[in-house]
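User: Okay, second chain of the day. Same drill as before: sequence in, structure tokens out.
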Amino acid sequence: MTDDDILIEFKLEAREILDRLDLTFVQLEQSPDDKKLVGNIFRAMHTLKGSSGFFSFKRLEKVSHASESLLGKIRDGQLTLDQQKTTTLLNALDSLRSIIEGIEENQAEPVGDDSVVVQQLLNLAAGRGLETQTVTPLVQANALPDSADPTRVSNTTPTPTISSAPDLGSISAEKVAEQQIVERELDEQNLLATQVKPPISNVALDNPPPHH
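Assistant: Same drill. Structure tokens below.
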């Protein structure tokens, strides 16, 4: 048997599984406490998961595996089947049908994103609600600062706060202006001194030193 023959067998089997799941889900909605029906759906998902893994149909494998996880908890009595779980399982069935139809048309798994329905199935299997987020935010808006939490030790050095930074350019200009004023005043004083004070030679001649 060639790979093409195996793929044809897979498509036939997958289509039969979809048809059985459609019928079983209708019966399950009428009898939600019927564990036998839950077990039939669980085995169908398990078979589909194994076959899709053989062909590396990753989308099909992830959706069927997540569905199997939820159905296993319901089958074992760990969880109760309610409307929310039933709706999520039916959404998963729609995703499986879309993927299988793509394989039937193109002989390959179509591109798509099933992360939402897969996460919902896993959340319900873990006993959480659909709104539960598994991605941890990088920044928590309501997180307390290190100083407010005595159990946390800050490894960062506090940054000093400067109320108003001076303008270095304006300070330099002011200093230069002040220096020019001082120099101008000194020049004026020196000039005035030379005009008023007689030369040293004249002072020495007019006032000879006393003789002892």
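The chain is about 65% helix and 0% strand.

User: Thanks, on to the next one.
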